[in-house]
Specification:
- The complex is a heterodimer of chains A (116) and B (482).
- Chain A contains four helices and no strands.
- Chain A is mainly α and 116 residues long.
- Chain A is elongated and about 55 Å long.
- With 482 residues, chain B is mainly alpha-helical.
- Chain B has a domain of 204 residues.
- Helix content of chain B is 72%, strand content 2%.
- Chain B contains 20 helices and two strands.
- The longest helix of chain B has 32 residues.
- Classes of the chains: A mainly alpha (116), B mainly alpha (482).
């Protein structure tokens, strides 16, 4: 097995792990980290598969650089939103899709805080 | 062509320019910059459409660098239609937003709008898969920023969900691009169209599946629509209109491009594959309409209507066999829905602003206070239902024609059923609007600024007129590479 293929196989594994994390985990910070893992997997595949006969191809390296910039920007935006969410509601997850309970629960919390 | 005067480059540069200037300027100058920039972009798009109509397709090498190293911009009839729609709808929405946000503009609204439009224009003009990935991300991040612009907890949650969905979608797309580059050593869409054939290795099939599924997630096709109603229903009205009318169409455009271009050999080798998007589209029409009929809040109703209308776009995929009818039907639906949905969202924004209630019940009596806005809402509804002579009617007519032509009667049936269901949710709102309550004897609510009412009416009227004057658009599509 060539080193390129090892990189690519590792990349596939990382991508699947990351994808599973984004979809299945609850805590926002973990989901954001999982997204980064997904991105790293794709980058490894891009760089790994493009090595032909041991000579690296410069084009995918440039693509990965661009991809990293995009991923950093996306991570920064996600972290900002997550912090804002936590400051507003005190929660670290956004719950399941269509979670109508979220509003109700935060109202309950407000009620609990309110002086009797 | 002269580099300085090339409309292709300016369509991307102008929005970047005014978005950056709006970031450093005060809120007073933001809307002026946006309006001036969009007028220029509309001219560029019109010039480009004329060029495309006479030459077929045009290209531009960014910075004069040759292809493997440089980025080639490329436009054909399909791009020209999307660009015209984007600049036209965006101009109307910016005029509306200037008045809608007259008290307080959400932070960085003008900047994010500019970056969003720049991203979409670049997407419509890109010809290589990696460049398309970057533009997809630019559109996604700017759109998430706009959803969060409201600042409330509900909006932040909607933005986070949207962000995670869009990141998974573009992550899958990027992984597909990596596999394609590994297999063929190029990401140029036109080159790949020649290289990929039915005997492609399994990695290419996997790449195609990942990229197309990722794009479905970003287009919010059923069952990937979960993020759309909270995001589009919770954002401020001009943002909802931008997202529903234009942003979901950008990823649909890319899906269509990939389907007809690089992956055409794969989809033709396995004809049953085309039934998949159509089946999901049919489910989207039924489920989206049902949810719109049941919705309690006005903007959530309109957002679910978007879920349903996106379904129509995917009904065309089994019909590409013969003739150009399917493509014409799809692009007419994109255009008609873009215009009508923008009109409907901003009309709803005005209704909510005046009544102060987000619920569907809040429109009661609107026929008395806001006749122009309600007329715009109704006209947009006519196009969504597909009544003649609207653009929506023509799109559905062509779709049903193509479906019967190729023996897919069920597609024709779904298209008709979807129109009836749309009738139910549109008339649900209109019926309430004509119900005059006793409270109306009190002082009438404040009249909104005229521009809020007339931009909605202009967009709605355009979606109707599209049905009468669709020939130039169909002629533009004639040269699209199949």
């Amino acid at each position: 097995m060539s080193s390129g293929l090892i990189f690519a196989a590792t990349g596939c594994l990382l991508f699947v792990l990351g994808l599973g994390g984004v979809l299945l985990l609850k805590a926002l910070l973990r989901r954001i980290l999982a997204f980064n893992l997904m991105g790293s997997g794709a980058f490894l595949v891009l760089v790994g598969l493009a090595q032909r006969d041991g000579t690296p191809d410069p084009v995918p390296q440039a693509m990965v650089l661009t991809g990293i910039v995009v991923a950093v920007a996306a991570t920064a935006l996600a972290l900002t939103l997550a912090r804002r969410w936590q400051a507003l509601t005190g929660r670290e997850d956004i719950g399941r899709v269509g979670d109508a309970g979220s509003r109700r629960r935060s109202k309950q919390r407000e009620r609990r805080k309110a002086p009797r | 062509m002269n580099l300085i005067l090339d409309p292709l480059a300016w369509l991307i540069l102008l929005p970047l320019l005014w978005a950056t200037l709006a970031f450093v300027a005060t809120d007073r100058y933001g809307p002026r910059l946006a309006i001036a920039g969009l007028v220029g972009q509309l001219l560029c798009a019109a010039m480009l459409a004329q060029d495309v109509a006479s030459h077929g397709s045009i290209g531009h090498l960014a910075g004069g660098w040759a292809e493997p190293l440089g980025i080639r911009l490329f436009a054909d009839g399909l791009s020209a239609v999307m660009l015209l729609l984007t600049q036209g709808v965006a101009l109307a929405l910016v005029l509306y937003a200037r008045s809608y946000f007259s008290q307080a503009t959400p932070p960085a609204f003008w900047t994010l709008t500019g970056f969003l439009i720049a991203g979409m224009n670049a997407l419509f003009l890109s010809g290589d898969l990696f460049n398309l990935y970057v533009t997809l991300e630019l559109v996604g991040l700017a759109a998430v920023g706009l959803v969060a612009a409201g600042g409330g907890a509900a909006q932040i949650a909607a933005a986070l969900r949207y962000l995670l969905a869009t990141l998974v979608g573009s992550g899958a797309y990027l992984f597909g691009v990596a596999l394609i580059y590994g297999s063929y050593g190029t990401v140029s869409a036109s080159l790949l169209g020649q290289l990929i054939n039915a005997e492609a290795p399994i990695a290419v099939w996997l790449a195609a599946g990942l990229m197309l599924t990722g794009l479905l997630l970003k287009t919010a096709l059923f069952p990937f629509h979960f993020w759309l109603p909270p995001a589009h229903g919770g954002a401020p009205a001009p943002v909802s209109a931008l997202l529903s009318a234009l942003v979901v169409k950008a990823s649909f455009y890319l899906f269509l491009r990939l389907w007809l271009g690089p992956f055409a050999a794969l989809t033709e080798a396995q004809p049953w594959l085309a039934q998949l998007p159509a089946a999901l589209g049919a489910s989207a029409i039924l489920w989206g309409s049902w949810q719109a009929i049941r919705a309690d809040r006005l903007k959530v109703l309109i957002a679910y209507s978007t879920v349903a209308q996106i379904g129509y776009l995917f009904l065309i995929f089994p019909l590409f066999g013969t003739g150009a009818l399917a493509l014409q039907a799809g692009i007419l639906q994109v255009t008609a829905h873009g215009l009508a949905k923008a009109a409907m969202f901003i009309a709803a924004g005005t209704l909510i602003k005046v009544s102060g209630s987000e619920r569907v019940l809040g429109v009661a009596g609107a026929a008395v206070h806001l006749p122009v806005t309600l007329f715009a809402f109704a006209l947009a509804g006519v196009s969504l239902m597909g009544l003649p002579p609207s653009g929506g009617f023509l799109a559905k007519w062509l779709l049903i024609d193509a479906a019967l032509d190729q023996g897919h009667e069920w597609i024709a049936g779904i298209a008709i059923a979807g129109g009836l269901l749309a009738g139910i949710y549109v008339f649900r709102v209109l019926r309430l609007a004509f119900r005059v309550t006793i409270a109306d004897d009190e002082a009438a609510p404040l009249r909104p600024a005229a521009v809020l009412e007339w931009t909605a009416l202009a967009l709605a009227a355009a979606s109707i007129l599209l049905g009468l004057f669709a020939m130039p658009l169909i002629n533009l599509l004639a040269g699209v590479t199949r």
